[in-house]
Design brief:
The protein is α+β, with helices and mostly antiparallel strands. Helices cover 27% and strands 25% of the residues. It has helices at 6-15, 24-32, 128-133, 149-154, 183-198, 221-230, 274-286, 303-306, 334-350, 353-358; strands at 38-42, 48-52, 63-69, 74-80, 86-91, 103-107, 113-119, 141-143, 162-165, 170-172, 177-180, 207-213, 234-242, 262-266, 292-295, 315-322, 330-332. The chain is globular and about 70 Å long. Bound molecules: zinc ion. The site of zinc ion has 4 residues, from loops.
């Protein structure tokens, strides 16, 4: 398999289809693109692990877990109606009014995908009450262009099949602008894989296992299993995190496009270990790596699950700013991916037992 360069890797990850619990296509890409990085394993939940080449026997050295989640916000077929339309249940946090009038791909029982549209009544057929009520997530319907139950079933569509946005990633080099879906967390997947590639021939003082996890968008379920399996001493979570620059003034921005990875001090599920966070910020400064610091009152990552597993795992989150996550289309920049990988690489190179000891002083 051709090894994609960093930009093409991000774009391929963005395009891959991976509803929570149905991450197989993303997992396949991980496996194909991880040649020579270490031992690859998969568990029954679909989590994929790369146990880095050069790690000690039985992980006797300080063990770092890297995490990025493979799933994306999606839907699942709930009912096939008499008229052939699909009612759906959300897999992950959608805002209803962002969902309508977009292209979707519905998986069939034999693994192919059928295009469809998220639809609602045009204004011509809406009552005043319906116009006022607005869109709710349970009013989302998907039309695959059929007119009866039998016609939809004949396409191979069954209840329980996943549905993902139908979007192809593009890149405008002149403006360094990626536009695509699922940068939450495929940006993280690409960054984690690229970090493993850049560390490939390094002599490290630590062991590294990269875990591509499943089902983050439905409550960090995959990461509960990966961290139980790996039992790390420290963790680095790679994410695509919501950019705030469309909404707040320049001075207040904490997650702007083009200004490097966002390092959150807190979110809804984790207070970032202050010493590990400080260590990371100092490394960014010493290496002139762009970075931004954030205090988040909402949202969470797999860090929420990982940091309170086992005996407590100091964890940091490196988030690529992405505009409009949890919708069909987002913007992100290569420079932010590049700076994230530089930072992760330098942090891992600098970690050792004595640094780790200072985290509990
Ligand atoms: Zn998300």
């Amino acid at each position: 398999m051709t090894q994609l360069d960093f930009k093409d890797l991000i774009m391929a990850f963005s395009d891959a289809k991976g509803a929570p619990g149905f991450e197989h296509e993303v997992a396949k890409l991980v496996t194909e693109q991880s040649e020579g990085l270490g031992e690859i394993a998969k568990d029954t939940m679909g989590n994929v692990y790369i146990d880095r080449k050069g790690n000690s026997e039985d992980h006797s050295r300080l063990l770092i877990q890297l995490d990025a989640h493979m799933d994306e916000v999606a839907f699942i077929v709930h009912t096939i109606m008499d008229n052939g339309m699909l009612t759906v249940a959300p897999l992950g946090g959608w805002v209803a009014h962002n969902v309508m009038a977009h292209k979707m791909l519905v998986r069939t029982a034999d693994g192919n995908y059928v295009p469809g549209l998220t639809v609602s009544k045009p204004p011509h057929y809406m009552s005043e009450a319906e116009k006022k009520a607005g869109v709710t997530i349970d009013s989302v319907l998907i039309d695959v262009g059929t007119s009866s139950y039998d016609e939809t079933v004949a396409l191979g569509i069954e209840i329980g099949e996943p549905i993902v946005p139908d979007v192809t990633c593009t890149y405008d080099e002149e403006r360094d602008l990626l536009m695509g879906k699922a940068f939450d967390c495929r940006s993280g997947c690409a960054n984690m894989l690229e970090t493993m590639r850049r560390l490939k021939d390094d002599e490290l003082e630590v062991d590294v296992v990269a875990a591509f996890s499943t089902q983050e968008e439905v409550g960090t379920r995959g990461a509960i299993v990966t961290t139980n399996t790996i039992q790390p001493d420290l963790a680095i979570v790679f994410e695509g995190c919501p950019a705030d620059d469309p909404y707040v003034g320049q001075k207040a921005q904490q997650s702007a496009l083009g200004k490097g990875p966002n390092l959150r001090h807190v979110d809804a599920k984790m207070i970032t270990h202050p010493k590990f966070q400080r260590f990371t910020i100092d490394i960014a400064k010493a290496n002139d790596i762009l970075h931004q610091r954030g205090v988040r009152t909402g949202g969470a990552t797999n860090g929420g699950a990982i940091h309170i597993s086992s005996q407590g795992i100091p964890t940091i989150v490196l988030g690529v700013p992405v505009r409009y996550i949890h919708t069909h289309y987002g913007y992100a920049k290569m420079i932010d991916h590049e700076e994230t990988v530089r930072l992760a690489t330098e942090v891992i190179r600098a970690l050792n037992d004595s640094v780790y000891d200072t985290f509990s002083e």
